[in-house]
Design goal:
6 helices, about 210 residues, alpha+beta, 10 strands, 10-stranded antiparallel sheet
């Protein structure tokens, strides 16, 4: 597993349905305006590249960000969203979700870290952040149904070798991260044999340089 994400999505209703409806939507000016919500004091300019497919945009390089602003969904992708405790997402970003669903998804394969959070109409209903070296950094709200089999030990992480000590968590964070992508956003990056409600190669985001 080697996927990385840093994504924040505002949606009217279900995120997967909203993302699916945004396929082919293109409005660079609205995307730039949306990005100022995340970087109000920075200079933002188009990166001069072709629009990014969502599958690649979920983790843009440092100094860049990707955004989509469509009628029923707004998407921000930026490494600045990779925070250890999702409940501490800046208040103005949460306030912008009034009347909508807000979902954060962040993971980093180098350290096996995964975090996600869900807000409904500005109220945090679930937040989780964990990594093998740090343990559970945050675990707030009721677990969502797709999490339960992982916590119940049905998907244990395989040891590196027969002599390796037991994995310090009941599951591999990136495995749950992929499941969360599929359940919450309608697609996965490395899952095999899964039914995807959203084609991440059909949804396009605009790239920007942030200075």
């Amino acid at each position: 597993m080697g996927a990385k994400t840093a994504m924040l999505v505002y949606a009217d209703g279900g995120v997967a349905e909203a993302l699916g409806s945004a396929a082919g939507y293109a409005d660079e000016e609205s995307a730039a305006e949306l990005l100022t919500l995340l970087h109000p004091s920075h200079q933002i300019r188009p990166d001069g590249e072709e629009p990014w497919e969502l599958a690649d945009a979920v983790f843009p390089p440092e100094g860049r960000a990707c955004a989509l602003s469509a009628p029923t969904v707004d998407v921000l992708c930026d490494q600045a969203l990779m925070i250890d405790r999702p409940s501490q997402l800046p208040e103005h970003l949460v306030a912008a979700s009034a009347g909508r669903r807000l979902v954060l998804h962040a993971m980093h394969s180098v350290v096996d870290w995964f975090a996600f959070a869900v807000w409904e109409d500005g109220v945090l209903v679930r937040s989780l952040s964990l990594a093998p070296d740090d343990g559970v950094l945050e675990d707030l709200g009721d677990r969502l149904p797709f999490e339960e089999p992982y916590w119940a030990g049905e998907h244990p992480a395989s040891p590196w070798s027969p002599d390796s000590p037991p994995y310090p968590l009941p599951f591999h964070p990136l495995a749950l991260g992929e499941r969360a992508l599929l359940e919450l956003f309608g697609f996965s990056l490395e899952g095999e044999g899964e039914e995807h409600a959203v084609d991440p190669w059909e949804v396009q985001l605009f790239g920007f340089e942030v200075a």
